[in-house]
Specification:
The complex is a heterodimer of chains A (106) and B (157). Chain A has 106 residues and is mostly beta strands. Chain A has one domain: Immunoglobulins (Immunoglobulin-like, Sandwich). Chain A is built from no helices and eight strands. In chain A, the strands form two sheets. In chain A, strands 2-8-7-4-5 form a five-stranded mixed beta sheet, with no helix packed on it. A three-stranded antiparallel beta sheet of chain A has the order 1-3-6, with no helix packed on it. The model of chain A has no long low-confidence stretch (mean pLDDT 93). Chain B is of the alpha+beta class. Chain B has one domain: Sandwich (Immunoglobulin-like). Helix content of chain B is 26%, strand content 38%. In chain B, the strands form two sheets. In chain B, strands 1, 3, 5, 6, 8 and 9 form a six-stranded mixed beta sheet that branches. Classes of the chains: A mainly beta (106), B alpha+beta (157). Chain A binds chain B through residues 17-18, 21, 30, 32-36, 41, 53, 56, 58-69, 71-78, 80, and chain B through 67-69, 92, 95-97, 99-111, 113-120, 151, 153-157.
Chain lengths: 106, 157
């Protein structure tokens, strides 16, 4: 079962820069490895990651096989208003995971 | 049985062939990867000049295991509507594919920073390129020594 963890501070002052850490459970199979019998293991990676703040996209990343398994992505955003941050991972073999975190801005 | 001169020559010739073959393969591989890196770089920056300023790429200088290497890119920028970082790209020279990660951000990010964990196939130079809103490119490189490559675990499954 695909899982993801996000760390967002639950409350922040208006205009404060908050750090967001995300971790998705995924093997990030590169497509370059072989089994003991010499068969190529097909590529299976997360291709894109997006973060939206109240529906507006604030951060997007395109991932390649050189990202380690269980990709960690940490970035910052400005706390503008109370609301929700939604995170979306999409990848090979129809992999999609969404996660939502609430933030309260005072 | 004594080895005749003819047999000896034949034997040495046979032994030499695989050695040269691997040597050629290695140089081809290195050349291919270098070409792939140049192509990936060109795809990002086109013909624009790149200045080695403002970007800071932080990687540990010595890594035991190339499978998971912490990487941080930070770019000096006021991150305002008029002057902000649009994109950050990370490239490697000797991985099977040069691209590592491409990030799109804007003034809503507050700070132009990115932290992730990457795979490194070999001791190599990692390059980070940032594009600011005025279209200029900035970069930084980091030399990394990898003792155990990310690609050596193949065949263990």
């Amino acid at each position: 079962m695909a899982r993801a963890v996000v760390t967002v501070p639950p409350r922040a002052r208006r205009g404060e820069i908050v750090e967001i850490k995300t971790l998705a459970q995924h093997p990030m199979e590169t497509g370059f490895r072989r089994t003991q019998t010499g068969e190529l293991i097909p590529r299976d990676i997360i291709r894109t990651f997006r973060c939206s703040y109240n529906g507006t996209e604030v951060f997007r990343a395109e991932l390649h096989p050189a990202i380690a398994a269980n990709p960690l992505i940490a970035f910052t955003t400005v706390a503008t208003e109370s609301g929700t941050l939604s995170f979306e991972w999409a990848g090979d073999n129809g992999y999609t995971v969404t996660e939502i975190a609430a933030i309260k801005v005072e | 049985m004594r080895t005749t001169r003819r047999q000896f020559l034949l034997l040495t010739a046979c032994a030499a062939v695989p050695a040269t073959a691997t040597a050629q393969l290695d140089s081809n591989l290195a050349a291919n990867r270098k070409a792939a890196f140049q192509a990936a770089l060109k795809k990002i920056i086109g013909d624009s000049p790149v200045r080695k300023e403002r970007v800071k790429l932080v990687l540990p200088p010595l890594i035991d295991n190339g499978n998971s290497v912490p990487l941080t890119v930070s770019v000096e920028s006021p991150m305002t509507e008029a002057d902000h970082v649009k994109a950050i790209h990370v490239l490697t020279e000797k991985n099977p594919l040069p691209d590592v990660v491409s990030v799109t951000l804007g003034p809503r990010a507050g700070r132009a920073t990115l932290t992730t964990r990457v795979r490194l196939a070999d001791t190599q130079t990692v390059t980070a390129i940032a594009q600011t809103s005025d279209g200029a490119f900035w970069s930084d490189t980091a030399e990394v020594v990898v003792t155990l490559s990310a690609c050596l675990e193949e065949g263990l499954i």
